[in-house]
Specification:
Layout: E1 3-12, E2 17-25, E3 29-34, E4 39-46, E5 52-54, H1 62-66, E6 75-76, E7 82-83, E8 87-90, E9 93-96, E10 105-106, E11 119-122, E12 126-133, E13 144-153, E14 156-165, E15 169-170, E16 174-175, E17 192-196, E18 200-201, E19 215-216, E20 228-229, H2 230-237, E21 243-247, E22 255-262, E23 267-273, E24 277-281, E25 305-309, E26 324-325, E27 331-341
Antiparallel strand pairs: 1-2, 2-3, 3-4, 4-5, 6-16, 7-10, 8-9, 11-12, 12-13, 13-14, 14-27, 15-26, 17-20, 17-22, 18-19, 18-21, 21-24, 22-23, 23-27, 24-25
């Protein structure tokens, strides 16, 4: 059984409100989650010696999360990932979004779901956050009611996302935690063994927008169906890192998505999801300029993300899984993060 404690994490400037921290604890895990951006700010996991380390990148104080930073631990939306040129059409009407990652719109715009204060409700084994995204927020149509629920059961952190819309709108929510199973502040993730259960991936153009091709992984650097040691794999294929969507089975059922194992500590993370895709990102844009927890800096490839989600730019790609939420429907998906040690 998990316990939940609630404390003040900090005050937003100009009377913007109080940011709270919720600590979920079980025998195996301790997870800190902030009401600012539904952000996972710390995640303590034991190694095979029984020593716990924090395995997510982030900041010890609120100021870190308020500066320009790469979505550490946050829930991103209204639409995660990229929308080409910040444009899409719904029912014959064209919508224009902020261009916050030239020439595209990324992770909901300049003030996405990661940069707002959510309303918390403590549960017996977790916390539920809610907010109403008003009609027109960051250019998106319709009012959107959103609930993000974190629950802890032993070594498994479960994240459920729900949303209801007053008008037809694209919705694609995910958590953007950066993991390093050696412990946050470790210099890289090259000694991590990665497996992703995907037969296909989405090639991208130079602005990281999918080309529309659904390509088989067979015989490519994207074939991660069997474990690969990340550093050696990047070297062997002469690639600078991953920032790609891997195409999953996608169903309403809990499906195995990915596994990352760190041999030295014995820690393993397994990801299960009901989503049709996972964006595997190896921290290619980290550059060591941000100072994180315990004075750590985060250079390139010092953390990885497994963002379970719909496919990028799906609103503009008719062959991709549908991303529009209509009035009267409910957006509802779940991701399970299971930590173990061997």
């Amino acid at each position: 059984m998990a316990s939940v404690t609630r404390t003040v994490f900090g005050e937003l400037p100009s009377g913007g409100g109080t940011v709270e921290k919720f600590q979920l604890r079980s025998d195996q895990l301790s997870v800190d989650i902030l009401s600012w951006g539904c952000t996972i700010s710390a995640l303590q996991v034991k190694d095979r010696q029984g020593e716990a380390s924090d395995v997510v990148l982030g900041f010890a104080e609120l100021e870190g999360y308020l500066q320009k930073q790469p979505y550490f631990g946050a829930v991103v939306g209204r639409v995660a990932n990229r929308i080409a040129k910040g444009r899409f059409t719904v029912d014959g009407k064209e919508y224009h979004l902020p261009i916050n990652k030239e020439p595209n719109s990324l992770h909901g715009g300049f003030r996405g779901f990661d940069k707002v204060l959510w309303t918390p409700q403590v549960l017996s084994n977790g916390v539920q956050f809610s907010r109403v995204s008003p009609d027109g927020e960051e250019g998106y149509p319709g009012e959107l009611k959103v609930w993000v629920t974190y629950t802890l059961d032993g070594g498994e952190l479960v994240i459920n996302y729900r949303a209801q819309a007053s008008q037809t709108t694209p919705v694609n929510l995910t958590n953007h935690s950066y993991f390093n199973l050696a412990g946050q502040g470790s210099p890289n993730i090259y000694d991590h063994e990665v497996t992703i259960a995907a037969e296909a991936y989405l090639p991208v153009d130079e602005t990281l927008i999918p080309t529309g091709v659904i390509a088989p992984v067979e015989g490519t650097a994207f074939d991660l169906r069997k474990p690969v040691e990340l550093g050696k794999h990047l070297q062997d294929y002469h690639i600078p890192g991953f920032d790609h969507n891997f195409c999953l089975k996608g169903s309403k059922e809990k499906n195995f998505c990915a596994r990352v194992h760190h041999a030295r500590s014995g820690r393993t993370l397994e990801v299960y999801t009901t989503q049709p895709g996972v964006q595997f990102y190896t921290g290619n844009f980290l550059d060591g300029t941000l100072k994180g927890k315990s004075g750590a800096v985060y250079p390139k490839h010092s953390g990885f993300c497994l963002e379970t989600q719909n496919w990028p730019d799906a609103v503009n790609q008719p062959r991709f899984p549908p991303v529009l939420l209509r009035p009267g429907e409910e957006y509802n998906h779940t991701t399970w993060l299971k930590f173990s040690v061997a």
